[in-house]
Amino acid sequence: MTLGITGGIGCGKSSAAQAFAARGFALIDSDALIREQVLTAPSIVEAVRQRYGDGVVTAAGTIDRSALASRIFTDDTERHWLESLTHPVLLELWRRLLAGNPAGPWAVEVPLLFEQSLENWFDFTICVACSPSQQLARLEQRGLSRTLAGQRISKQLPLARKIELADMVLWNDGSAAFLQAQVDHLIAALPALR
Question: Which residues are 29's β-sheet partners?
Fold first, then answer.
């Protein structure tokens, strides 16, 4: 069984994914793969350098993610260009990882699951959601200003639409224990949902 976990930025996708991992699911963190493998690939670094110049590449030859973010979150054309460059590489990494244990169970954290029409990769999709005030508070705790937080939120499918599209929703306005109890409830129900 392969679960696709999505939700808005700051809603707690990673916390939910970690809860599934703690309960025996193999975890794929798409953001970590992008950071650690995709954006470090020499061909990707060179393509980004060619597009944006040396200002988005550090002295060590790695992509300066903050400089890159300032380019792509203010221009949809540039964001789409970067996604078209990086997502095929990410999907190939998924293929390899999933092929290593085809029976699973897998929990795949995918921020842009619905935006990229990736539903067919998963047996069930889960949206982790919370109130807008909680979402903004969490993003501010991460060091994003309200302006930057709003900018990043606006580049994703509205949370209400993700909730509509998902097979299941985990509401993450409460404590960590409440989220984990929802994960336990969902795992108990999964065999019946197959």
Answer: 109
Work out the average pLDDT over 97-118.
91
Q: CA angle 141-144-149, nearest 5°?
A: 110
Check if the beta carbon of residue 152 is closer than 8 Å to that of residue 31: no
The interaxial angle of helices 13-22 and 176-193, nearest 10 deg, is 60
Residue whose pair of structure tokens reads 């903004």 in the numeric block? 136
- Measured CA to CA in angstroms, residue 60 lies from 54, 57, 156 at distances of 11, 8, 31
Q: What is the pLDDT of residues 16-34, one digit of tens each?
A: 999 999 999 999 999 999 9
**What are the residues whose beta carbons fall under 8 Å from the beta carbon of 24, sequence distance 6 or more?**
105
Mean pLDDT of the chain: 89
Q: How many angstroms separate the first and last alpha carbons of the chain?
A: 9
Q: Checking DSSP bridges between strand 2-7 and strand 124-129, what pairing results, if any?
A: parallel
* 40 contacts: CB under 8 Å, gap ≥ 6: 62, 63
Q: What is the pLDDT of residue 193?
A: 54
Helices 42-52 and 76-99 cross at an angle (nearest 10°) of: 180
Fold of the 1-25+104-188 domain: Rossmann fold (3.40.50)
Residue 180 pLDDT level (bands cut at 50, 70, 90):
very high
Radius of gyration of the chain (CA): 17
Cα 64 from Cα 75, distance rounded (Å): 17
- How far is 39 from 90, CA to CA, in rounded Å? 10
